[in-house]
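lol ok so funny story. i was supposed to be doing the assay writeup but got distracted and ended up predicting the structure for this chain instead. priorities right. anyway since i did it might as well share w the group, maybe its usefull for someone
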Amino acid sequence: MPDSANALPRHVPVLIVGGGQGGLSLSFLLQQQGIDHLILEKNRIAHAWRAERWDSFCLVTPNRQCVLPGFSYAGEYGGKDPHGFMLRDEIVAFLETYARRVNPPVREGVAVTRVAPREGGGYAVQTSAGAMTADKVIIAISGYHTPIVPRVGAALPASLPQLHSLEYRNPQDLPEGGVLVVGSGQSGCQIAEDLMLAGRQVHLAVGDAPRAPRVYRGRDSTDWLEEMGHYDMPIAEHPSSEKVRQNENHYLTGRDGGREIDLRAFALRGMKLYGMLDGVDGQTIRFRQDLTQHLDAADATYLRIRKTIDDYIEREGINAPQAEPYVPCWAPKSDPETLDLEAQGIGSVIWCTGFRMDFSFIDAPVFDGRGYPGHDRGIATHDGLYFIGLPWLHTWGSGRFAGVARDAAHIVDHIAAALAPREQAMA
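and the output, tada:
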């Protein structure tokens, strides 16, 4: 790959902002089309996987779904565990191997600070290494930018360490004592389990994220759902339409070969569960009286997924083992109202409360009131601007390894078609 110290070109036909799986996929396909381009990566290739995940982090989708243009886990990479779930460092190694195969034109350590349309077409781009222009700009930096820490965190005792899930690495790095984890999405549940397995007393403020089965009727649930075409459903055909982009991800884990996450089972093992955090009075945390509601709602989603699979098996006449009926293993006698930080020996708080998108460096009229870019399958409403890697950009897999190749191909085909008339005129 080119030396990041080289000076930036004054102009490129296509500029890609971000060097993750989306940017690498685009580069592979652009090279196949013979389209000159450049990737600018603020940090290093695969930085988000490398530096923004905790030590025990692993995929929740099977390795076999890691299929990038010209490169797949079970194929060119030669992975030996297609039904397993890569750990963080294995994901980085997978992407580094792909980067060597793609050999993209990339400048690492260069931040893009402004992208603005130019009069007459194309874009002016300001970077930490100088200015340049581009005919087309593709934003490949996902949608997880600014960590969200609720304002109520400011009311916690100043002596109590707080960190966001982005900063969490392992239980050993935390101060001694119990840990309050706020949020029960993918990160919250997995971090809470990581701490529990390390022997920490965990207090988990449960939100409205749903849960999903791991292995059901003899197969991983993702195998069934993929076979049913669930992951190929475009957002335009989803019952919730664009509202699905605001949904919480289902929680489950790929840890130790993959298993379900059942917060009720965690409670039986000693984890303390609460409703959503509602306020702080000195050393006392107040919670909403909605723990039972959230546990029941998560189970309802879990059972709906099981029934969807049951109906498919029956409809297709598939011979699959029967499943035991689901029976909740635990229920709270009452929804806890408060937590005394001092009495319970809480030594730290981890905010697993998500991220906000921050595309403020893009000075183009494409964003709605929430800051979400207007686009059709990644093709923005302003000519020459594109997005890739956003959750439900087109399908469920758009923000994951499962769908990025398809999205990249669609964008590159659109760019190739747009650039062809200009090239023909210059011939």
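The longest strand covers residues 130-139. Residues 4 and 403 are 29 Å apart (CA to CA).
back to the writeup now i swear
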